[in-house]
Amino acid sequence: MSVSTSVSQPAVPLPVAVPLRAALPWAIFAGVLMLLVTYFVGAEQGAVSLVSGEWVHEFVHDGRHLLGFPCH
Amino acid sequence: MPLSDDATFSVRALLVRGLIAGIVGGLLAFGFAAVFGEPSVERAIGLESAPAAHDHGDHATAPAEHEHAEEEVVSRGVQRTLGLATATGAYGLALGGLFALAFAVAYGRIGRLSPRGTVVAVGVGGFVAASLVPFLVYPPNPPAVGSPGTIGERTGLAFGMIGLSVLLAVLSVYCGRKLAARFDGWVATLLAGVGYVIVIGVLAAVLPGFDEVPPSFPASLLWDFRLASLGTQLTLWAGISLVFGVLLERGLRRESRSLMVTAG
Ligand SMILES: [Zn+2]
To answer: Buried (b) or exposed (e) across B102-121, using 16+ Cβ within 10 A?
Structure first.
């Protein structure tokens, strides 16, 4: 298999780390947004509630169970 | 020889690929969950409502009262189709985005792994740390299992376990890299992996457990549900990894010409 130990293969590019510093605020914003979505699928209107009512919990109910989150 | 900037990935381009992979992975997980998960969820809901109906059966006025108390906000038909698809799609989207960010950090920083190799490492590591280990420590429960009194504690511990497990996995990779400078790669990886497993084992032993499965709940149904739950999560991770890997190689192949020109 292609274990890239030598530079002799020009087709296989060397791993060049992704520059992170400039993109950090962006990346953090995206990460927080993703965690918020996870919260809505996994916990909203169960243990904690930001939106009143039960419809979020009820709507994602089966997914919450099958994705491994505690439901009720 | 310095490589030009366009030879690397940008975080933005990775995020877009991650979100696309996440949606596709989420829809694949929906397919798996609808076929293999829904039958057990449906059976468990049947068990949940059956005893309550019996309790009220003796009184003429009680059934109406009971129906009112359990008035459906969202019908079962919507829950098991559109609701399930939305949940797996949204969760897939979130995991896809986080997957892309993890790739951005890992690529070129954990040894000389190729782009595809890094995708596999992030995918396997992510599944084990964020899904498999939390599954083993706090196994998910079908409807009709779990007491409402402990939902706060259980939710906190479930999310806490995912967070801790991912944090420990990242830490163990970091330690593994440090150890690799002193030992050879295999020994370093083994030591880091064993360290992760030991800390998780201690956490699992120390943290509170919950034994809330009613004695009357069928063991085979519990097994079916939990297996389907793990399968759904595995499908999600596999789907995200595969799609992300394909999108990555495509983008890379387009960029590799400019790389070869500037590097040569
Ligand atoms: Zn439920």
So the answer is: bbbbbbbbbeebbbbbbbeb
Interface test with B, best of A41, A67, A71 (most B CBs within 10 A): A67
Confirm whether pTM is higher than 0.90: no
Mean pLDDT by runs of 10 across the 264 residues of chain B is 53 94 98 97 88 43 42 86 96 97 92 90 97 97 91 94 97 93 90 97 95 93 97 98 93 61 49
pLDDT tens for residues A19-48? 888 889 989 999 999 999 999 999 888 888
Q: Any residues with CB less than 8 A from the CB of A10 and at least 6 apart, and which?
A: B260, B263, B264
Pairwise CB contact (< 8 Å): B112 & A15: yes
CA–CA distance, B121 with B166 (Å, rounded to integer): 14
A12 pLDDT above the threshold of 80? no
Residue type, B10: S
Buried b / exposed e over A28-56, threshold 16 CB at 10 Å, is: eebbeebeebbebbbbbbbbeeeeeeeeb
Interface touch A62/B141, C-beta < 8 Å: no
Q: One-letter amino acid identity for B220? A: S
Contact B47, B219 (CB under 8 A): no
Q: Phi, psi at residue B110, to the nearest 5°?
A: -115, 80
